[in-house]
Amino acid sequence: MVQQKILVILGPTAVGKTELSLDLARQFGGEIISADSMQVYRGLDIGTAKPSPEERRAVVHHLVDVVDPDTPFNVADYVRLAEEVLAGLKSRKTTAILSGGTGLYIDALLQGFLFPDASADAAIRSELEQQAQRDPLSLFEDLKKVDPLSAKRLHPHDLRRIIRALEVYRRTGEPISLLQRRKAQEKRPYQPVYIGLWRDRPDLYARVNRRVDAMIQAGLVDEVAGLLKTYPEQPTALQALGYKEIACYLRGETTLEEAIERLKRDTRRYAKRQLSWFKRNRDIRWFNRTEITDERIKQEAQALWEPS
């Protein structure tokens, strides 16, 4: 099997992935596939630092504005759609540039073993959630009977994952642990070339703070207010970073200044978690953007993409 090469640009929020991805897309004549779990939602523009209309006209972007905020969307949906995009790019002999900071989505697409058969069944999920309200520990007992391996690695109070495992079992008749082992043995049809971006911590955190200030100036408060009006039930998408903090302000639970400081703090913490996730992948070639110019990174990317 001839694997499809994919240029992967990853790193924490505010590190500068968008600018470099645009430059590399022009350099390689490629198209960008977003690997951001929140940019898939329509209307979540400012708070997700979605590429601007000008940037999207300059370079084709995929998997941006895919679903409405009240539409369920998970990692399995992302992988399915990304695979379709990659197949199209391959048929057109166009370079695929996967860019984003959602490590879960990137790993699930390129390594393929994280979430087998992860599509949801609303009826089964509702039934399990009702059982959780009546007798939460009974769910763990049920899991021990049908999937002892999963029960061994999950905490008895981790209801979300326990419900997920039981849902998969009821849908497929097979334990999720078995499906995960099978998935891990599959050979993915992709050959990723990883470029990781990071910055010295003071530099990165200063960029995070400036980004939040820029979002506020760009109208984040009005964006969140409009979304809350359209989606008063506040679906999962509106619990995202940047939206839940401003929503607290709009509900009168905090001042705007406090909401902004909380958003800056939470974004800095998120960037730290992103780096911790990515550092587990030893195939990533890391570049410190505090010290290395974009021109140097682009030269290195060319060398990695077309080794002599």
A few lines on this structure:
The chain has helices at residues 17-28, 53-58, 75-91, 103-110, 122-134, 136-146, 148-153, 159-172, 176-185, 201-218, 220-230, 243-250, 256-278, 294-305, and strands at 4-10, 31-34, 61-62, 96-100, 190-198, 285-288.
What does this molecule look like?
The protein has a six-stranded parallel beta sheet, sandwiched between helices. The chain contains 14 helices and six strands. With 308 residues, it is an alpha/beta fold. α2 links the parallel β2 (31-34) and β3. The chain has helices at residues 17-28, 53-58, 75-91, 103-110, 122-134, 136-146, 148-153, 159-172, 176-185, 201-218, 220-230, 243-250, 256-278, 294-305; strands spanning 4-10, 31-34, 61-62, 96-100, 190-198, 285-288. It folds into two domains: 4-112 and 186-305, Rossmann fold (3-Layer(aba) Sandwich); 122-185, Orthogonal Bundle (Histone, subunit A). α10 (201-218) packs across α13 (256-278), α11 packs across α12 and α12 (243-250) packs antiparallel against α13. The relative contact order is 0.16.
